[in-house]
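Data deposition worksheet. Section B asks for the primary sequence of the deposited chain exactly as it was used as input, without tags or linkers unless they were present during the calculation. Section C holds the resulting structure in token form. Section D is free text for depositor observations; keep each observation to a single sentence. Incomplete worksheets are returned to the depositor.
Section A, Depositor: J.P.
Section B:
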Amino acid sequence: MNAPADRTFSIDWLVASDGVRLRRGHWRPAAPRGRVLLLQGLSEFLEKYGEVAAGLTARGFEVWSFDWRGQGHSPADSGARTDVFERHLADLDGLFEALPPGQPPLLLAHSMGAHLALRHLARRPHAVARALLCAPMIGIRTGRWSQRLARALARLMIRLGLGERQLPGRRNYTALHIPFAVNPLTSDRVRYERLRGLILNDPDLTFGRVDWYWLAAAFDSLDRLHARGVAQSITTPMTLLLAGQDQVVDSRAAARFAALLPHARVLWVAGARHELLQEAPAIQATVWAALDRVLADPE
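Section C:
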């Protein structure tokens, strides 16, 4: 693992409830005026968010984040594959508990991280002061398959002992193997090539496996999020940024869910692909304008 070159960025290890050591990052501004908890999406890692963290520290916010188990340099998960989302939630509890004393942080979360944030806030709506959720995983795009077929296939493959097989089209699903021209994540070539460079420099950061176990666990977690009364229990003030050209998560499902949240606003970002925080400059301007409102305005 490469040591961070930036002296404002430090790495340590968070010990989870089951003893697993999770890699945690902390970015420090010169004069902190607040705190942001940043939750990554699937297949991501601390270094990918260096630019985002720099923007936040420039605004006076310290930033805490961590690599989910099995991602970045956090060790692979060895528990039951069907319970991975529940272990992620337990790890998130630990991340909150390990924060230094202070006011509830602000929350910035992307995709799977935003999904887990919503589940956490359903139990602890006052854990954060307010939140910005980027392309939240409130529904999954399943391509040519219907949702019902995808669920049935996931259950069948697991029953057949084939749960660890990667989903069709998800073999080597990383920036190293997907040409920029057909990538579903960003329209910004510079940021995409920078991501490739990070992985080339440290291949252990890559995460390309999305298998039937993960899909089944994701559907189960989505069912829990969509259970009766859950959305209404999330009283945290929040903004949901939805990508107009998202091919990974279901933006319309997210909009329908947001309509049930007591204190949520929705902003559609036209022309954006899934990774709003890694998008082109014009799209970034919209994203950061929304983020600045969340950072500054509690209402």
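Section D:
The chain has one domain: 9-296.
The mean pLDDT is 93.
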